[in-house]
Each structure stands twice: as structure tokens, then as C-alpha cells.
Amino acid sequence: MGRLAERAILVTGSTGIAAAAARRFAAEGAGVFVTSRTPEHCAGLAEELRAGGAAAGFLPADLTDEGQVDAAVATAIARFGRLDGLFSVAGGSGRRFGDGPLHELTVDGWRRTLDLNLTSQVLVARAVLRRMLAQEPTAAGSRGAMLLMGSVLAFHPVPELFATHAYAAAKGAIAALTTTMAAYYAPHGIRVNAVVPALVTTPMSARAAEDPATAAFARRKQPLAGGFLDPAEIAHAAVYLLADESRHVTGQLLEVDGGWSVVQAAADR
Asked: Of 26, 65, 105, 108, which one is least surrounded by beta carbons within 10 A?
């Protein structure tokens, strides 16, 4: 414990992976600020962290709205004085907007899915970068570390089960954003990486988890987990990528996938 002591970390999202990570960050000594669009989830998670003895704050925000994003980041700075880390988790499926195979995709579905999964991360990263660039580096020369959220579906598609092309495109763009940001901001003492999960037990994956074919596929494709990954497994990776032991790691896409990327497994038809 104590790997994130005296750090202030902003987490976007307040359930699933975001909640698991916030708990781990707090257990490792960090102050945690939570922002997501659901007020009760934000407040509940922050209250839970404070009850456990952590310093925590929150502000509900629509992360596709730059004004609300800027307000959330400003509130986090006001609470902690600086930001040492960002874990940008918030996003979700675009199926409800019409995401699907490209020939069926509507323009509205495309835009709303990218707003949810790409524009939101860009706006948050931009606001945090502006603050990190302005703050004094630590004794080790670090102004901060940023961790974005990718997906294995951008690199290892399963068209039989997950034909959501706008979502995959958004996550592919996150990969490009990670490497280009890492190159640009390394001389400024800011690291940028991304975590790339496979199927994880979260509210977003509830529909997939209830589908027998998808559940069986997860057991075959993610043999190290024996099915869907626990969100805590992603939180473990996030701690490493935001802590000092990864101080020379930037521009990397860490796949936490239970074997997905290397195991061949056909989906049930």
C-alpha cells in the first residue's frame, strides 16, 4: 500500500472499472476525485471512499460538454491543489444510438457513439493537460500521468458478436491519441498510456453477459479469467501505470484481456 500516496487522481466514471479503480487508488493512498453524468453514482462512490478514510470529492458532469468538463477539472484542482493522475474510463456502448455494421450505421449513431467514447476522453484529457502543464513538476520531474481507456475490439474484432463499428473506431482513435500525446508531452514530464480491456463485468456488459453465446465465447477467449474479467483486474493495471514504478513507461497500450489477443476461439453461431 502507499504506491499512490500524496497523489491526486481524477477518475471519469463511477461504476464498474471506474469504481474499482477509485477504490484501489484510495487504498494506495491517493486523493480521488470522481466525475460522471450520474449524480447518485458519483456521490455514493465519493462517500464510500471518504468512509474508508480517503480524501475524495466529486462533481456530476456530462463529459461530452466542454464547459462541464472544465468545471469538473477546476473543482478537482480546487479540492486537491493539483492533479497527478487521470484515469479516463467513462464511455459506453453506442447500440442504443444505432451503432452497428457500417452499412446500417446512421450519422446520428456515429456521432453520438464517438462523442460518448472519444470526444469525452479528448475533452477531459485536454482540460487535465492544461492544468498539468501549468503545475510544478515533482522532485522526480513528473507533472503527471494520464491513462486512457481503449478496447480489444479495436484490434481483435469478433464480427459475429460485436459488430459495433463506431465504437471500435472510437477506441482505435484512442490508441492513436495515446501514442501521439505521449510523444508530444514526454519532454514536459507527462506520461500518457492506455489500458485495453477485453470483456469485463460492468453495467455496460450486462447485456452481453446474459447472452449464452457471448458468455460461452468469453470462457473460451479469456481462459485466464474463465469468463468475464473482474473490474479489479483493470484497476491493478491502472495503479501500475499511474504509480512511480512505471515512471519510464509512456505511449503504451496495455491489453488486460485474459488471453483474448492470443487465443483463437470461434463464436457460437
From this structure: 108
**Structural domain includes residue 38:** yes
What are the C-alpha distances in Å from 22 to residues 120, 144, 145, 178?
19, 17, 15, 21
Give Cα 246 distance to the centre of its chain: 17
Catalytic residues: 167
Whole-structure pTM value: 0.95
In a domain, residue 268? The reply is no
CATH number of the domain that residue 31 is part of: 3.40.50.720
Instruction: For 87-122, write each residue's pLDDT tens digit.
Output: 999 999 999 999 999 999 999 999 999 999 999 999
Rounded distance between C-alpha atoms, residue 155 and residue 183, angstroms: 21
Report the alpha-carbon distance of residue 9 to residue 128 in Å, rounded: 10
Phi, psi values for residue 248, rounded to 5°: -110, 20
91-99 long-range contacts (CB < 8 A, ≥24 apart) are 91/13, 91/116, 91/117, 91/120, 91/121, 91/149, 91/170, 92/116, 92/117, 92/204, 93/164, 93/167, 93/204, 93/207, 94/164, 94/166, 94/167, 95/164, 99/164, 99/165, 99/166, 99/167
Neighbours of 108 (CB within 10 A): 10
Strands 85-88 and 56-58: unpaired
Residue 200 domain-assigned (yes or no): yes
